[in-house]
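User: I'm writing a tutorial on reading structure tokens. Could you give me a worked example: one chain, its sequence, then its tokens, then a sentence or two explaining what the tokens reveal?
Assistant: Sure. Here is the example chain.
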Amino acid sequence: MAQEDVFKKIVSHCKEYGFVFPSSEIYDGLAAVYDYGQNGVELKNNIKQYWWQSMVLLHSNIVGLDAAIFMHPTTWKASGHVDAFNDPLIDNRDSKKRYRADVLIEDQIAKYEEKIQKEVAKARKRFGDSFDEEKYMETSERVKEAREKRDALHARYAEAMQGPDLEMLKQIIVDEEIIDPISGTKNWTDVRQFNLMFATEMGASADGAMKVYLRPETAQGIFVNYLNVQKTGRMKLPFGIAQIGKAFRNEIVARQFVFRMREFEQMEMQFFCQPGTEMKWFEYWKRVRRAWHEALGMGTENYRYHDHEKLAHYANAATDIEFKMPFGFKEVEGIHSRTDFDLAQHEKFSGKSIKYFDPEKNESYVPYDVETSIGVDRMFLSVLCHSYCEEQLENGESRVVLRLPEALAPVKCAVFPLDKKDGLPELAEQIVDELKFHFNTHYGDPKDSIGKRYRRQDAVGTPFCVTVDHETPKDHKVTLRYRDTMKQERVDISQLRSIIEDRVSITSVLKKLGEEIKKY
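And here are its predicted structure tokens:
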């Protein structure tokens, strides 16, 4: 099945099973805005809990913060967002659709890369075990041609983005004969800049209203509070401040479901350190953050680093952690060495000293900063895309199952009475009441067959199902079913908590991650 079709099924599945709904759907929705349903909010909260605890529990020198969405407008002048927070915009005159010029070009680069991979895949199938991929890449004329085109385009694109040079970006689109996917034409406008911040007014009267912005990132709330946290917490460098919160960007092209939205949630940590040590910490956080992703067991081959060639105005190093989505490798997290730009700018614009006094050096200075920033919604989507599976069973039937990491699953356990007789529903409810204080446990009404109830829980990713049958009142045992293998076993009711809790707790993943971190 084409990956595009798989992605459409995932989007449909999200609505059908209570993960994500189009916002304001009864009014025909609002473009690129989504609401998280009853299962989606649980999955999202579990992701946030895993991130938060990995930061503040596993690192004694990292603390939390929850800053306001509204900030003094000078904040965004100091940070550079008022003057430099722009994307290159281009329109197709025939379809009347608007696109990011850089995304169009990046998609074209990806097409060359896909062509190379297809040629390699065909050769591997043709030559079998004797296939030498490295040699084939060097000798194949088709691969060579595609690589030369990809590399030449990549070099031009990197040069154009340094300015950015808007005329060069337009020329690249023309030279590559990039067409609008809707109209099929190459009738493009010139490229122009577009500021992404949402503006509003604060004040009781029109005359006295002050122009403010919905924050486009959560980082600035940390920077303006850095000294408050440092002094009240008596923090010594290096130390970090972690925050989870909403951010807002008026995206030119909001697409690919919850991957790119206008209202989204970020998990960011700013790590403050001595000037000159930032690259050591940049490399450290690259490794630690990738380990955080890989600890979930979604396959190391599905992750890769992507180093930035065009650095933001505040950075001296930047890399992305990309995950293999159905629509290609895409960024889910960024690690940036922001130098002292943000703190120095806020000191300059506020006129107040926010220097750190180093008791060991007996001097004051503005710390450097290394940032880790991950989109909750993108992480949510990567988990769903990796977990969605359509499976053919040995008996000829099929099932849709979400093989979610067990610690992230919205519901950890569902308890089913086999039917309504002999007090089985009451006994099932007793089991739910015992387990629900330890992990999210649901009661499954016996109005449907046990098979249908299993399928329903497979579709929402529930790792364990417990069935109370007519033998249970006699032997105090139940049937425990495992989601991924569909294996069933009889276990004592008293054993349920220990069997399930060890596998579904965030703590189990944190312990695994903690061991990895010790290596760094």
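What the tokens reveal: The CA atoms of residues 298 and 386 lie 7 Å apart. Residues 1-69+217-390 form a domain with the BirA Bifunctional Protein; domain 2 fold (CATH 3.30.930.10).
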